[in-house]
Design goal:
- The complex is a heterodimer of chains A (400) and B (196).
- With 400 residues, chain A is α/β, with parallel strands linked by helices.
- Chain A folds into 2 domains: 9-252, Rossmann fold; 260-395, Rossmann fold.
- Helices cover 40% and strands 19% of the residues of chain A.
- In chain A, strands 3-2-4-5-7-6-12 form a 7-stranded mixed sheet, sandwiched between helices.
- The termini of chain A are far apart.
- Chain B has one domain (8-193): Pyruvate-ferredoxin Oxidoreductase, domain 3.
- Chain B has a 6-stranded mixed sheet with strand order 2-3-1-4-5-6, sandwiched between helices.
- Chain B is globular, with a radius of gyration of 15 Å.
- Chain B starts with 7 loop residues before the first strand and ends with a helix.
- The mean pLDDT of chain B is 93.
- Classes of the chains: A alpha/beta (400), B alpha/beta (196).
- Chains A and B meet through strand 8 and helix 10 of A and helix 1 and strand 2 of B.
- Strand 8 (181-187) of chain A pairs antiparallel with strand 2 of chain B, so a sheet runs across the interface.
């Protein structure tokens, strides 16, 4: 029997996009400005229907581009209201310069981002090229494994953004989650509204009694300090994110951390991954554990800020680790998640785990349990010193 | 009972506009509402144009479904358009001796089994064209094929299933009750008519 965990919950079958729109309906931001793009279109399409039907009081601004969508969202947020948007892939690329303005102005905007490959060649399917490109833009990045997490992450993102005064991006894998109908638990409107509370900005431009300047020229004298403040806010954000996850769990009974550990504590071989493929790794682990292989998973939920000081404690005992990136940074070195994991370990003097980098799933390329099992098999060889070649990028399910 | 402790996987084959994706979404909703199953429904997106071959998928399980890979070896294959059998290697891709295939056709089970070179015990046929013309008034094969699948998969309470579909269709066709009734009739007709 599938039952809601929370007394405030109802079981539904919804796609990632549908549940994102549902979360937005319950949040009922004051302003949503968006431009449609596959595979994120449905989010704002469904939400704009809520606006037209008078179900929400949100001011919906149908803009002519993603650049304008982010600009309008920034303006609304600066003016002093809750503002949200949604996009994907080329849309996020087109927002680029505005992303840095949102974080630099410390505006608590929440964006739902459906991960999709970037052209060329043109492709509409899921990979992390879009949001990984934005990883240094000063936005908090939270990734979702399934439809339930999309919903829960969006609700928590409102509080995270407003507490940290940083914009938050909640990501889900394009098509794999955005268009996959799954079972999820949603909570009643009042409980969600109560959890996010009323938005009370500390200061806002339309407060004519307390005028101030926002976005002025900032040269050699203060620019550095202001960017330092963004970095500081980011590095302090983890504590806030954990506190909000704790509050969320107390009310709704769904547990979240900066990352999820799956059979990791006694594992010798570990996989680190982001997004929907984590569920496939879990299935592979269940199978391998029944054969007494000590395998585990660390699924990164909050990628920015990177939970450096937390992650190392859970990885220090692992003997061989595979870091799976759904993006290729074309850097001549390694992919983003691998670089973050290795520098986190090395900076703390933890050099015992052997760490190998895999790239998978670009442009929606399938990844299955057999692929994951073969990675654990390779990790086992590394552990036994039978595999020498772990200091280069490996590719899963690629024709070379 | 056809659905056991593992995950049951279904692949729908149709042409753009025939409603394969909608059928998979309705099927998932039915399995949740009438059987309390964990479900997934997802389409395969390629070129989006009317008439192009399209696929949609379901997973049904008693356990939480965490897998998000594609479905390569389905337990049930549902074919909405008989013309897709011309390129039948795509249709029976991943077919095992335990798979079942349900086809919209006016041909017999024996003819289909011969054409696909599979055991006729794995084949079910239903004339979804005739049913949809009779019940809906135009050729939309998804509702009858949904009804046929519900029958073959077994242990489904038809009335509960129809209630679940009616609720879903009401969201979309609030002012077109004749569309809703036509579709419900198509589902129950095919449920009763599908044969081996």
């Amino acid at each position: 029997m599938i039952k809601p965990i929370s007394s405030r919950g109802t079981i539904v079958a919804k796609t990632g996009n549908e549940i994102a729109a549902e979360a937005m309906r319950q949040i009922e931001p004051d302003v949503v400005a968006a431009y449609p793009i596959t595979p994120a279109t449905e989010i704002v399409q469904i939400f704009s229907q809520f606006v037209s039907d008078g179900i929400v009081k949100t001011k919906y601004i149908a803009v002519e581009s993603e650049h304008s969508a982010m600009s309008a969202t920034i303006a609304a947020s600066a003016a002093g209201v809750r503002a949200m948007t949604g996009t994907s892939s080329q849309g996020l690329c087109f927002m680029w310069e505005m992303l840095y303005i949102a974080s630099g102005l410390r505006l608590p905007i929440v964006m739902v981002e459906v991960n999709r490959a970037i052209a060329a060649p043109i492709n509409i399917h899921g990979d992390h090229s879009d949001t990984m490109g934005a990883r240094d833009s000063g936005w908090i990045q939270i990734y979702s494994e399934n439809v339930q997490e999309v919903y829960d992450n969006i609700i928590q993102a409102i509080n995270i953004a407003e507490k940290t005064q940083l914009p938050v991006l909640v990501a889900m894998d394009g098509f794999i989650i955005s268009h996959c109908m799954e079972i999820a638990e949603i909570y009643n409107d009042n409980a969600v509204k109560l959890f996010i509370g009323e938005y009370k900005p500390t200061r806002y431009l339309l407060d004519i009694k307390h005028p101030y300047t926002l976005g002025s020229l900032d040269l050699q004298d203060y620019y550095f300090e202001h960017r330092y403040q963004v970095a500081q806010a980011m590095s302090h954000a983890n504590k806030t994110i954990l506190q909000i996850a704790n509050d969320f769990n107390n009310i709704f009974g769904h547990e979240y951390h900066l990352y999820e550990k799956y059979k990791l504590d006694d594992a010798e071989l570990g996989i680190i991954i982001i997004g929907s493929a984590a569920g496939i790794v879990k299935m592979a682990i269940n199978e391998l554990r029944s054969k007494n292989l000590k395998v585990g998973l660390l699924k990164v939920r909050v990628y920015r800020p990177f939970p450096r000081e937390y992650i190392i404690k859970d990885l220090a005992h692992i003997k061989a680790i595979a870091v799976l990136d759904r993006v290729d940074s074309c850097s001549g070195a390694f992919a983003p998640l691998y670089s973050d994991v290795v520098s986190a370990l090395y900076s703390e003097g933890i050099t015992t785990p052997k760490v190998i980098n895999y790239i998978y799933g670009l442009g929606g390329r399938d990844i299955n349990i057999e692929h994951i099992k073969s990675i654990y098999n390779t990790l086992n060889k590394i552990l036994l010193d039978k595999e020498e070649q772990y200091n280069k990028i490996n590719y899963i399910n690629l024709r070379k | 009972m056809a659905i056991n402790d593992t995950i049951t996987e279904i692949r729908w084959h149709g042409r753009g506009g025939q409603g394969a994706k909608t059928a998979s979404l309705l099927f998932a909703e039915i399995m949740l509402r009438t059987g309390n199953y964990y479900v997934q429904a997802f389409p395969e997106y390629g070129p989006e144009r009317m008439g192009a071959p399209v696929q949609a998928f379901n997973r049904i399980s008693r356990q939480v479904i965490t897998i998000h890979s594609s479905i390569t070896s389905p337990d049930y294959i549902v074919v909405l358009d008989p013309s897709l059998l011309e390129d039948y290697n795509i249709i029976i891709n991943g077919f095992t001796i335990n798979s079942k295939i349900i086809i919209n056709t006016s041909l017999s089970v024996t003819d289909i089994a011969l054409k696909l070179n599979i055991n006729k015990n794995n084949v079910y046929v239903v004339n979804a064209r005739e049913i949809s013309l009779k019940t809906i008034g135009k050729y939309i094969p998804n509702a009858p094929m949904l009804g046929a699948l519900l029958k073959i998969i077994g242990n489904i309470n038809l009335n509960q299933a129809l209630n679940s579909v009616e609720k879903k269709l009401l969201e979309k066709f609030r002012n077109k009750t004749e569309v809703i009734h036509g579709n419900l009739n198509a589902i129950s007709s095919a449920f009763n008519e599908v044969s081996r």
